Amino acid sequence: PVDPRSQLLQEMREQNFDLIRFASYRTACKLRYVQKKCNLHVIDIWNVIEAFRENALNTLEPTACVNVTRLETLVSSLYHNLNKRLPPAHQVSVEACSALLLNWLLSAYTTGENVGKIRVFSIKVALATMCAGKLMDKLRYIFSQLSDGNGHLLMKRLSEYLREVLAL
Fold first, then answer.
1. Under 8 Å CB-to-CB from 57, ≥6 apart: which residues?
2. What is the DSSP string of 23-88?
3. How far apart are the C-alpha atoms of 39 and 97, rounded to whole Å?
4. By CB atoms within 10 Å of each CB, which of 88, 123, 136, 148 scores lowest?
5. Residue 7: predicted pLDDT
6. How far is CA 139 from the centre of its chain?
7. Is 29's pLDDT higher than 80?
């Protein structure tokens, strides 16, 4: 079998996104391609939030790291819940989508010192950015992750957020 990570990269190369002149458009096209391949365009922000709750990741500190097994459980629960809402003719392959999303997240966020682990904040940023949903709902969720208990934006978290988004 083909490695899902290299398969996705190969498919993206075949789309000729690199011929797009402006970097911002090129990046947007690549992210949209990943979003559609992983079926994140049919998972909304509320489903992402619910998956974090179901898997008890909403209570963890943003800097906490989760291992691949826990990430796999989160990702597969997203797709299992999606299939519950979709008609039988439109069901997605939980295994294929999970593997693709998992490998994409790992390639985007794992570093030399943290192989096989991803910070909770990184997962939240990636999924909130790539999922579907109303813009205001997504922005409110992201702001809730960047602010303190009094609703004040924490500059350190904003800086981390920007770093995480740019890693995508």
1. 66, 70, 74, 120, 123
2. HHHHHHHHHHHHHHHTTGGGSBHHHHHHHHHHTT-TTS-TT-EEEHHHHHHHHHHHHHHHHHHS-G
3. 7
4. 88
5. 80
6. 15
7. yes
CB 100 within 8 A of CB 8: yes
**Which 3 state secondary structure label does DSSP give 119?**
strand
Per-residue pLDDT tens for 76-118?
999 999 999 999 999 999 999 999 999 899 988 887 777 788 9
Using DSSP's 3-state secondary structure scheme, residue 15 falls into coil
Q: What would the two tokens of residue 137 be? A: 């709902």
Q: Distance between CA 21 and CA 14 in Å, rounded?
A: 16
Question: Helix, strand or coil for residue 99?
Answer: helix
| pLDDT, tens only, 136-154 | 999 999 999 999 999 999 9
In the block, tokens 């682990």 appear at 117
Question: Residue 32 CB: number of other CB atoms within 10 A?
Answer: 14
Count of beta carbons in the 10 Å neighbourhood of residue 146: 21
The domain spans of the chain are 4-167
Of residues 125 and 3, more confidence is placed in 125
pTM, to two decimals: 0.90
